[in-house]
Amino acid sequence: FNKPGSLPPSEAFTSSFLILTIISVPANLLVCCAFLHSYLVEAKLLTADIILCHLAFANLMVAFTRSIPQTLAALGYVHFFDDVGCKVSLLCFRAFRGLSISLTCLLCVYQAVAISPATSLLASLKTRIPQFLMYIIVFLYLLYYFTSVSSALYAVSSLFNNTIPPYTFNLEYCFVSYREYFAYIFVGFGVMSRDLVFILLMIIMSGYILILLYQHGQKVKNIRSSDHSQKGGRAETKASRAVVTLVILYVVFFGVDNIIWLYTMTVSRVALLISDIQDFFATLYTSVFPRSILIFFSS
């Protein structure tokens, strides 16, 4: 399994990917099991719980399809996939990575709708989102699987003469080799544009939540009861910090990921170090967001 003639893997990246895997797999698995136990005991889940459960499952699958293979590659083990395995692995990673974005967006939209006043334009969605939730989730699954097929078709386990041609992403254990520049650009900008829509919507809804929390906090200050104002203030402060953390983490992680992606669109050969950095940020949220989202709901 050792890659012939390759340099020893970077200790920094090896440790980083290993830590991400050790944290993300148990954390997301624990969230899935917790909601499964809740469903078996109570025979139902709240709307936010269903979204959160699917989000944890998506993060878990990202860890299985990218974090674990990348960790093995960082440790110096490669060629554990054939061509079909590379295509399936890349398809699942692209799909579940996108699902993590869109489901978090759905989570933010639902939370904004849930706390919006009765006079808000979003008020009509309070009953419609729970009613059509499963249809929305199934649509997101189908959307990301069908739109991820194009990039997965270019995945292979090895290259002819071990020579990396232009427009090829080197994952160490697999290669994504585009035969022409048009496909390289088309797939890259297609993936980025698709995810960017959900990220922008998530930022807008999170901003709306912060506005509502601020307005509510101002009303609480006018209440004479000190106990009520203190409890309300603590709750609103905690919720505000959780929302801001959620938005900042997404903007930073996916912002860095997409900036690197844009850079790779301008060069014909992507350095292995750049690919490792992009992979790190593409999987970093799987270990961070379970805690961030749980804090968000516990507030």
From TrEMBL:
UniProt keyword terms in alphabetical order: Cell membrane, G-protein coupled receptor, Membrane, Pheromone response, Receptor, Transducer, Transmembrane, Transmembrane helix
Intracellular or extracellular location(s): Cell membrane
Pfam families per record: V1R (PF03402)
Family matches, as InterPro entries: GPCR_Rhodpsn_7TM (IPR017452), Vmron_rcpt_1 (IPR004072)
Gene3D superfamilies hit by this protein: Rhodopsin 7-helix transmembrane proteins
Domain G-protein coupled receptors family 1 profile as annotated: residue spans: 27-293
Organism superkingdom: Eukaryota
One Gene Ontology molecular-function label: pheromone receptor activity
GO cellular component terms, A-Z: plasma membrane
GO process annotations (BP): response to pheromone
Principal place of residence: membrane
Annotated transmembrane regions: 12-36, 48-68, 99-125, 132-156, 196-214, 242-263
Membrane topology, from the record: Multi-pass membrane protein
Family to which this protein belongs: Belongs to the G-protein coupled receptor 1 family.
Record's protein name: Vomeronasal type-1 receptor
Protein species of origin: Erpetoichthys calabaricus (Rope fish)
Lineage, opening ranks: Eukaryota, Metazoa, Chordata, Craniata, Vertebrata
